[in-house]
Structures are given as C-alpha cells and as structure tokens.
Design brief:
Structural class: mainly beta
Order of helices and strands: EEEEEEEEEEE
Distance between the termini: 40 Å
Strand content: over 45%
Oligomer: single chain
Largest sheet: 7 strands, mixed
Helix content: under 10%
Number of helices: 0
C-alpha cells in the first residue's frame, strides 16, 4: 500500500509563491511517475506538473514557466515550486503516484487572493 501526504498549501497574494511537498511511503518503484494534479470549482481535474518514469518532467499548458516540479529520490518526496501565482491557480492540489496502481493524496488547498 502506498500513502501520499501533501503539505505546503495555504493562502497567498497574487504574484506570490508557495512550495508544495508530497511524501510517498510504502512499496513502489523508485522510477515511478509522480506529480501533481489540481481541481478547481467548476473545472475538470488537470495536470499541473509531473515527473515521468523516464525522469522527464511535463507541465500543464497554463503553467507557462511559473512552476517547477522536482523530486528527491532519497526522501521519496516530490515538490512543486509555484511562483507568480494567480487567482485562477486557486484549487485543491493533489499529489499522484502511478505505479502498478494509481495512488492519490488527500489534497492541499491553495488559495490565491488579495
């Protein structure tokens, strides 16, 4: 069984920054795909950023260079550094890990508002 625990969400003003963290525990391949989706009211779930099984990274089109995903294999942790945040980035951000099964974290709220 895999568990994902997110942290780092909160309230930030437009133009500000946040860093989300997701710690994975349990049994999984170290090279598995891991990253972040988000879900905002009235919108479909969308990929924010992820690290693929080959070590490459991919981003949602809306990121436009503002976010960076990284992973620390020694800590089984994936990070999402978010800069230049906008009100439309307000959403619940979910960590995912796609291994033999798909696993999701409980989500962390990010609110961008003045």
């Amino acid at each position: 069984q895999v568990q994902l625990v997110e942290s780092g969400g909160g309230l930030v003003q437009p133009g500000g920054s946040l860093r989300l963290s997701c710690v994975a525990s349990g049994s999984f391949f170290s090279s598995t795909a891991i990253g972040w989706y988000r879900l905002a009211p009235g919108h479909q779930r969308e990929l924010v950023a992820g690290s693929t099984t080959g070590g490459a990274t991919n981003y949602g089109d809306f990121v436009k260079g503002r976010f960076t995903v990284s992973r620390d294999y020694t800590k089984n942790t994936v990070y999402l550094q978010m800069n230049s945040l906008r009100p439309e980035d307000t959403a619940v951000y979910y960590c995912y890990l796609f291994d033999l099964y798909n696993y999701w974290g409980q989500g962390t709220q990010v609110t961008v508002s003045s």
